[in-house]
Design goal:
The chain has 303 residues and is mostly helical. The protein folds into three domains: 1-35; 37-167, Four Helix Bundle (Hemerythrin (Met), subunit A); 181-302, Alpha-catenin/vinculin-like (Four Helix Bundle (Hemerythrin (Met), subunit A)). It has helices at 2-34, 38-64, 72-95, 105-124, 129-148, 181-207, 215-239, 248-267, 272-291.
């Protein structure tokens, strides 16, 4: 009986070793076939994520200095870039939990579809040279991603009629057109997190400035605190309601507070990191405005 048990155990160990070797061989064959190892793909995704964030910051600054500032066109462009940021974050997050067998091809295609929309915008309009150069570098990385997943390059006609938002199944019917409850909840979560990060960075910037200890510092900090409180309130109320527009007053309150901050940011210099975080946060806030059919951050209607 003991000998039989030992033989069974030995057989099981041998089977597991063979299975592990087979899996390793498959991964190696996959790496040779694409020309990239899993580590190299992860490094590529990291570069794409970082360059997407940098591109978003530079483009937002370019828009602020253009005649599009405060227009619907600016909001639409910022929304496309925000979708690209979210898509790259999603692929990076999902790839960390999967292997190199192609489970992430749908997420990669979603990135390339969104990048194609951004590419059309970049081809139609003139932005700052820094924005355009960063986009060229980012597009080259995205085309490498396309090759790895055997997908068409950025700008291919096959992406022309795809709708990014429809790739996410609806959890519940919503009258906020084109967005599910889950997507709105995720947007509110990002707004809350970026508001907290912005407030922290702004306070550090104020502490290092000549405004430290002044009444002006207190007023600016108070405006930032009002924005934090209003975003917390909207997130809290939305968790207990549905997506039928009950939270429009809370959303408008957020945008009024954000407009007060936006005017401060345009009048003073707070440092690159603070300004970059604000640019990303304002993009998300303008998407919130669009969801609730409200004016964008900075609108005169909030004066």
């Amino acid at each position: 009986m003991k000998n039989n048990t030992l033989k069974l155990f030995a057989g099981l160990v041998a089977f597991l070793m063979i299975a592990a070797m087979a899996d390793t061989n498959y991964a190696q064959r996959r790496a040779r076939r694409t020309g990239y190892t899993k580590q190299q793909v992860e490094q590529l995704l990291e570069r794409i994520e970082e360059r997407t964030d940098a591109f978003s910051n530079q483009l937002n600054k370019s828009l602020d200095r253009s005649r599009l500032d405060g227009t619907n066109a600016e909001d639409n462009i910022a929304e496309r870039v925000s979708e690209l940021e979210n898509a790259t974050d999603e692929l990076r997050r999902e790839y960390d939990h999967n292997d190199t067998r192609g489970e992430n091809k749908p997420e990669a295609r979603k990135i390339l579809n969104t990048a194609t929309e951004v590419n059309r915008i970049m081809n139609r309009r003139n932005f700052s040279r820094q924005s355009e150069n960063t986009w060229i570098s980012l597009r080259a990385e995205l085309n490498t991603l396309a090759r790895i997943f055997s997908l068409p390059a950025v700008g291919a006609k096959s992406y022309r009629f795809e709708q990014v938002r429809n790739t996410v199944p609806a959890r519940r019917n919503t009258i906020i057109k084109g967005y599910t409850q889950q997507q709105v909840e995720q947007l509110l979560e990002r707004i809350e997190e970026r508001t907290d990060a912005f407030s922290t960075q702004l306070n550090k910037s104020l502490d290092r400035s000549r405004l430290d200890g002044s009444r002006a510092e207190d007023n600016i900090a108070e405006r930032a605190s009002e924005l934090e409180n209003s975003t917390d309130e909207l997130r809290r109320e939305f968790d207990h309601n549905d997506t039928r527009g009950e939270n429009r007053p809370e959303a408008e309150k957020v945008l009024i507070s954000a407009t007060n901050i936006d005017r401060l940011m345009k009048r003073r210099n707070f440092g690159g990191q603070t300004e970059s975080t604000w640019a990303m946060l304002r993009t998300e806030l303008n998407l919130l405005a669009k969801l609730y059919a409200l004016q964008a951050v900075g609108s005169r209607s909030y004066r």
